[in-house]
Amino acid sequence: MNTETKISFSHKIYSIIVNPKLIKIIGYCLIVLYFGFLIIGAIIAEFFGPEGYSIMTHYISDLGSWNYTPAPYLYDIACICAGILTIPFTFYLEKFIAPLPNTQEDVNLQHRWIYRFMGANFFLSMFGSFFYIGVGIFSEDRDLMGMHGICSYGAFGGFSLSAIFLGFAIIFAKQEIVPKPFNFILGLIGIFLPFTVAIYNILYGGPFLEWLLLISILIWLVPILLFAIIHANKQIKKNIQKD
User: The whole model's pTM is what?
Assistant: First the structure.
């Protein structure tokens, strides 16, 4: 396979990943699958688990252990689905907030700091996504060589830190994903909320604080996800009009 063929193949894969139609479908699947499996898993653990599950006394990862629930695979599937399905959104956000400059107009579109913010966000978001997949693979019952703890810290750390850089980007970038004034509100939430709760977790720990960290990340990510779906839907309509 020559260089041109490799570039062409990579471009085709990238075009598929950031296709607005795919993003729209993946977005709805992500919301339904993740929240569906997570909520159902928590309900089963609470009412049918050996000791009754509670967010006040049990860690999130306990949902993936036979010691606390008769259906640990539900949480495992939720983590794997969320990890896989958030990856295309990372590419999509980068494409429409900090696209690769192909013309002089593109070069002048964004300040170079926006590219730095989005580059950091891309790396940390991917970091979080892959480690979240790892949380599902290496559950509490399959904790090989401490991989479950490593993946948990990697997922929480990746998503919490990426929120800071994406928060700055959506505030200062010329972008259409998150419209004004929501970009300022969401940007500030991303910059301060997940990271602050993560620091509290490091200092004090405990099951409830771990749940608060997950909730703080979801408070940030879910609106971004919904705005991306809305933007993808607009792109689909534009493409139809062009055709």
Answer: 0.91
